[in-house]
Amino acid sequence: MRYIRYAILAILAVLLISVSLANRGLVELRLVPEAVSELIGYNQVVSLPLFVVVLGGVAVGLIIGFIWEWLREHKHRRVASVKAREVNKLEREVTRLKGKQAEGKDEILAILDEAV
User: Fold this and answer.
1) Please, which residues bridge with residue 59 across strands?
2) All structural domains of the chain with their residue ranges
3) Rounded CA separation 66/3 (Å)
4) What is the Cα–Cα distance from 77 to 52, expressed in whole angstroms?
5) Where does residue 37 rank: exposed (0-12), middle (13-18), buried (19+ CB within 10 A)?
6) SS3 of residue 47 by DSSP
């Protein structure tokens, strides 16, 4: 299974490298359209290779998606945390009650009750 994963990662790497080499041309990225930049007097232009723009867009999309899912699943993690604390509390209570139940008994019988 490990070799299949490495093969898939190698194929993906070759594809990304070939796309990057095929799209090395420079493109201009503008913060705002030209007409708006003339009105406000602010014109920010950056020239980057096309593959950087495409792969950067994919990376930013993945990061936004991961953050979105993390925030969306917050309530589920909170409920799981509350349930885990409740389970720990109940386990401590069961242990305490078993200890009380075995106070007046013989040690051997108490050990046998704990095993069950």
Assistant:
1) none
2) 1-58, 73-116
3) 27
4) 36
5) middle
6) strand
For residue 113 the two structure tokens come to: 């009750």
Place of tokens 């993906």: 12
Residue type, 85: R
Q: Summarize pLDDT for 55-111 with one digit per residue, the tens.
A: 999 999 999 999 999 999 999 999 999 999 999 999 999 888 877 766 666 666 667
Q: Which residues pair with 29 in a beta bridge?
A: 46
- Asked if residue 30 lies in contact with residue 37, where contact means CB atoms within 8 angstroms, the answer is yes
Look up residue 39 and give its two tokens: 């009105």
pLDDT digits (tens, 9 = 90+) for 12-36: 999 989 988 898 899 998 888 888 8
Residue 48 CA, chain-centre distance (Å), reads 29
